[in-house]
Amino acid sequence: MGNKQSTQTRRQRTNYYGGMFLFDENEIDRVQIQHHFARESWNGNFSSPVKDVLRTDEATVLDVGCGAGTFLCEMAADFPKAHYFGVDLLPTCPNTLPHNVKFIQRDVLKGLPFADNTFDFVYVRFLVLDLPEFEWEKVIKECSRVLKPNGWIEMMEPRFGLTNKGPMSEKIVGAIQARARSRNVDPHIVDKLGGFLSSMKCLKPINSEMRVVPCGSWGGKKGQLGAMFLRDVIKKHLRFIDNILNIRQSDYENVLNIFSQEIEFYHSHFEFYRYFAQKY
Ligand SMILES: C[S@@+](CC[C@H](N)C(=O)[O-])C[C@H]1O[C@@H](n2cnc3c(N)ncnc32)[C@H](O)[C@@H]1O
């Protein structure tokens, strides 16, 4: 009963967000898939050299736009001495979290509710379709402010697009990109993240890594996860682009199946980036 009520409350409280980030059980499944896809793509949850500090009991970690808190909960199991904080615009985290994980509902664009120099590690991922281009520098500046000297910031985002596309995939990806641009969101923001990080004079050096992500079982386990990730992102966006694609809700499943067939046939893939830098 209690759980039902909290789910309902959560739905009511999140409906205001233009429908775009409506947080329901399907969305929670989606972020879990996203998390496993990310970890498998890189064979690990992060690239910054923070393992030693995370083994100490003074270590503090912040995840900005943490969603369901999947990253934080797994980190809390891997490095149980550290203290974890997640911030999200919406009440996205489960009510029950590990004792060393705290969730705070907050719009990062209004500033992070932490003092300067608080965290050893600040982590940001999968905000590519959420943040308008002109807000990224502000977010990075705020993350740098709350980072301790010698602390690390890490950002991980796909270059939202697809190489080797079939005709349906071309239409779908094009429509999502067009919708993003109409909201001042740059689906290729990864091309600018290195520049934004460099413009914070306190961060150095700026490291970057790239992985080509296969989409489809032709790419083995990583390809299967890549396909699940992209299919889920598309599924979430279909209701916003069905007018551009000239389809109805009853066509969604068919469109997704054509997409899945095309990525196998054309060996579709996309690029996935990590940027990480130290504050001095
Ligand atoms: C695609 S989800 C990614 C969630 C999480 N980073 C992950 O990897 O699973 C994007 C998240 O960013 C949050 N978000 C979007 N704009 C935000 C803002 N201005 N401040 C805080 N969180 C925001 C959304 O509510 C959503 O939970």
Automatic annotation (TrEMBL):
Coiled coil: none annotated. Keywords: Methyltransferase, Transferase. One of its GO terms (biological process) is methylation. It comes from the Eukaryota. The keyword Nuclease does not apply. Gene3D superfamilies: Vaccinia Virus protein VP39. Residues 61-151 form the Methyltransferase domain. InterPro entries: Methyltransf_25, SAM-dependent_MTases_sf. One of its GO terms (molecular function) is methyltransferase activity. This is S-adenosyl-L-methionine-dependent methyltransferase. It comes from Rhizophagus clarus.
